[in-house]
Write a structure and sequence with these properties.
The complex is a heterodimer. Chain A is of the alpha/beta class. Helix content of chain A is 43%, strand content 9%. Chain A has a domain of 200 residues: Rossmann fold. The N and C termini of chain A lie far apart (67 Å). The mean pLDDT of chain A is 87. In chain B, 70% of the residues lie in helices and 0% in strands. Chain B is built from 20 helices and no strands. In chain B, helix 8 runs antiparallel to helix 9 and helix 8 packs across helix 18. In chain B, 40% of the residues are buried. The chains are: A alpha/beta, B mainly alpha. At the A-B interface, helix 1 and helix 6 of A face helix 8 and helix 20 of B.
């Protein structure tokens, strides 16, 4: 029996070594390019090690669009801050997903003075954001991140696809690119498109059970950041041309968090309603990002008396 | 619980570890609990059906053994038949027959109000009812002694490796094995693991990938072209083989690791040179069940010729219906019955032709041609087996009849999905080629040197990793 166990271990070990060697090779093929926060949707490709940032941004595509198309550089210039944006677009900005990136960020020995979490109501109602198999197909294979995913209990499908995707043509074709559409502007509010958007981000409608589960996870993330006392954490509800269902429930939760942890939140969902600031119904274009950063984010870093003008708490 | 699930990858090593740690006399308790848990992971309440079947057959068997002649035993056999076939009929066939009956009455303008039930088909019901029935029939015929240990009998009915999709075991083979105390055996474990790996490869890497193409074509045959219909049908032939023989290999492998020998279910069926040979190689546990408990009791071939043909036809017709309550399965069974009748009724003619004609010698003695012809016949029948209804089957056949050789029309799915299918199919066929005259993969592998064996294992493992479809597709035969 011992001989058989040794043979099995040897066979699996050899295959594991082969897997690691191939993964290393595949990683190198992509990592040889120079990636920045605004030239990739991946986060691991630009998270450094042992570095302090003035500002760390988390959230969904509403926050990610603040990095795309060199918007990241514009924000850094306006705020005069060194920023890292770990938010995720393309339907991947779930709470657990953001928790994974945050944990990895710390694991790499990085720190941030301030964390701004752009929080949207639909992340509390969508059970699929964190279980999409394709969640990490743009991330390089890293053992540290792999262990974070295992630790946080991600679906096996997500973890398998994360590794498997490194063997695909799509991975080898991953190179720095810049979004060009961030300067476009929405013409009008189209009810059909809004309805379609709701269907995409609220596939289970306003499922209270999902909300309860996600709220518990949100509290877990808050408690995790709160333990790292050196940070200032702020929750921001991003501006949007449309109303998000479940908004009031989320605000109630943010109020509870504020009482429990003393973490402030700012609701900017109704603060910018001009079409010229949006590329679609809910994503800011470059002009919008600049305006929002100047008018609403900048005061956060100034004297307490100059807190943002609308709906702040 | 599916074999191709994370739950099973945890469940099985835990069960095996506890199994070998337990003293021999208590192992049946573990096997019974594990088997019920395995089944209940799908739908807990339906375990009651297995328990009912177990109780009825256990007591029927005991009672029959105390009675001297068949006449007095008959009532207990009838009880077992009524309970088991009654459950099968209620859950699997009632709605089908009641609907057909209602439509027939409607055709004669007779209004009827036959109720329909919203019943979910219990997984594996056709398998375990046939397994328990074989027990009572064998006891009735004095072929075996009844099992006195209720717990061991319950394990025989619910043994988890083969509970939901066979092989359909015979009591005479399996029950005595539960009385033996198996020790850890490295050779047996190696063979079991080999079978499991081969089974997983066939299911996850081959069958589930072939399903992508097949589902696309058979999901909407009217929109497809002839060449895609041909490829989908050939792919389905390999899909169902890899799916079902993959399940059987995993089942035989898991049982083997614990020390139990299950019967072979497949022996390279697509290398058959005739339809009768195909049925000696395909789903062996079911075809021998029908042979022993239906075809032979009907008289087999020891009757008048017309009656012999009738026996063949009715056996295959019922075998078709066993697969599902749908006319497509009935036609599939009827087609095979027809093939068999043509085969046995033309033997003399073919022998005469072979001895007198030079051309016939070339044609009929050519192995490859016979294999190809048999494969085409089997594939034609698979069209009915796979199609959603008879109309769809007709559409597929008409598409094939009007085939045009435009190779671009092959790509009903993206080339990115299509090419991996060809790669895994090639690997499977290559390994399968060596398996064609052997009982199973373990006999092939044990004849090869270690580096070649390890290369084959690695090829299977990497194919599962790179091309595997991990969406936990159910095994096709779960629905039967």
């Amino acid at each position: 029996m011992l001989k058989l166990a040794r043979k099995i271990l040897l066979f699996l070990g050899l295959n594991l070594i082969l897997l690691v060697v191939i993964l290393g090779f595949m990683n190198r093929q992509v990592e040889k390019h120079d990636f920045n926060n605004w030239t990739t949707e991946s986060n691991l490709l630009h998270i450094p090690a042992d570095k302090n940032f003035d500002l760390l941004i988390l959230g969904t595509s509403h926050a990610r669009s603040m990095a795309r198309a060199r918007n990241h550089l514009r924000m850094e210039q306006i705020l005069d801050r060194d920023i890292i944006n770990l938010s995720q677009g393309l339907g991947g900005g779930g709470l657990l997903n953001q928790f994974a990136f945050l944990k990895y960020f710390y694991k790499q020995g990085n720190t941030a003075d301030t964390i701004i979490y752009f929080i949207d109501p639909f992340v509390f109602y969508n059970p699929y954001f964190d279980s999409k198999d394709e969640l990490y197909v743009y991330e390089p294979a890293r053992f540290g991140f792999f262990s974070v995913l295992l630790n946080l209990g991600f679906d096996p499908g997500v973890i398998y696809t994360y590794l498997y995707s490194k063997f695909t043509e799509r991975w080898l074709g991953h190179h720095p690119f810049s979004w060009k559409s961030e300067s476009s502007q929405i013409e009008n509010i189209n009810a059909v498109s809004v309805f379609k958007r709701y269907n995409v981000v609220y596939p289970n409608d306003l499922d209270e059970e999902v909300f309860r589960d996600k709220s518990a996870l949100f509290e877990r993330i808050t408690a995790y950041i709160d333990k790292k006392l050196e940070h200032k954490l702020v929750f921001i509800v991003p501006p949007s041309l449309i109303e998000w269902p479940g908004h009031d429930n989320m605000i109630s939760l943010l109020k509870e968090i504020k009482i429990q942890y003393g973490i402030p939140y700012y609701d900017f969902s109704n603060s910018m309603k001009e079409l010229k600031y949006y590329k679609d119904h809910d994503h800011l274009n470059t002009k919008g990002v600049e305006y929002f950063t100047r008018k609403y984010l900048k005061p956060l870093f100034e004297e307490p008396a100059k807190t943002p003008p609308h709906n702040h708490q | 619980m599916l074999f191709n699930s994370i739950e099973f990858l945890i469940f099985f090593p835990v069960v095996v570890s506890i199994y070998f740690l337990l003293p021999g006399k208590y192992r049946w308790i573990l096997l019974l609990l594990a088997s019920y848990y395995f089944y209940m992971a799908w739908k807990a309440e339906y375990v009651v059906l297995i328990m009912a079947s177990t109780l009825v057959d256990y007591f029927s068997g005991l009672r029959m053994s105390k009675l001297p002649d068949k006449k007095s035993r008959r009532k207990y056999l009838l009880l077992s038949l009524i309970v088991n076939l009654g459950m099968l009929f209620t859950f699997k066939y009632y709605n089908f027959f009641s609907q057909e009956f209602r439509e027939m009455l409607n055709a004669f303008n007779v209004l009827s109000d036959i109720p329909q039930f919203q019943l979910l088909l219990p997984v594996g019901i056709s398998f375990y009812t046939f397994q328990t029935l074989s027990y009572t029939i064998d006891v009735y015929n004095d072929k075996i002694k009844p099992e006195k240990h209720a717990g061991i009998f319950a394990v025989y009915v619910a043994f988890f490796p083969q509970l939901v999709a066979g092989p359909i075991e015979r009591a005479g083979r399996l029950l005595p094995q539960f009385h033996k105390v198996n020790r850890l055996d490295a050779n047996r474990i190696t063979d079991g693991l080999r079978l499991m790996l081969w089974g997983f490869f066939k299911k996850v890497a081959v069958a589930d990938n072939l399903a992508i193409y097949v589902d696309q074509v058979y999901g909407n045959p009217a929109d497809q072209n002839g060449i895609a219909a041909v490829i989908a049908t050939v792919f389905f032939a390999f899909q169902i083989f890899c799916d079902f023989s993959g399940y059987s290999d995993i089942a035989i492998g898991t049982a083997k690791i614990m020390g139990y020998e299950l019967m072979d279910n497949f022996r390279a069926p697509y290398y058959s040179r005739s339809i009768p040979e195909f049925w000696r190689r395909w789903h062996i546990s079911l075809s021998t069940w029908f042979r022993d408990y239906l075809y032979i009791p009907l008289g087999g071939n020891r009757v008048l010729k017309w009656r012999w043909y009738y026996n063949l036809f009715i056996t295959f017709l019922i075998s078709g219906l066993w697969h599902g309550a749908n006319w497509t399965f009935v036609v599939w069974g009827a087609l095979h019955g027809f093939y068999m009748i043509v085969n046995v009724s033309t033997v003399q003619w073919r022998e005469w032709f072979l001895s007198t004609s030079h051309v016939a010698k070339v044609i009929f003695s050519s192995k490859v041609l016979n294999i190809a012809f048999t494969f085409i016949l089997v594939c034609f029948a698979w069209i009915f087996f796979r199609a959603n209804n008879i109309t769809d089957a007709g559409i597929v056949i008409s598409k094939i009849a009007n085939i045009s050789l435009n190779l671009e029309e092959i790509f009903v799915i993206s080339p990115r999905e299509f090419y991996p299918i060809l790669i895994v199919l090639f690997i499977m066929l290559l390994i399968h080629y060596f398996e064609r005259n052997k009982r199973n993969i373990t006999f092939v592998l044990s004849g090869w040197s270690r580096p070649v064996r390890w290369l084959v294992y690695a090829m299977m493992l990497w194919s599962i990793f790179l091309f595997g479809n991990f969406t936990q597709q159910e095994f096709i035969y779960f629905t039967f």
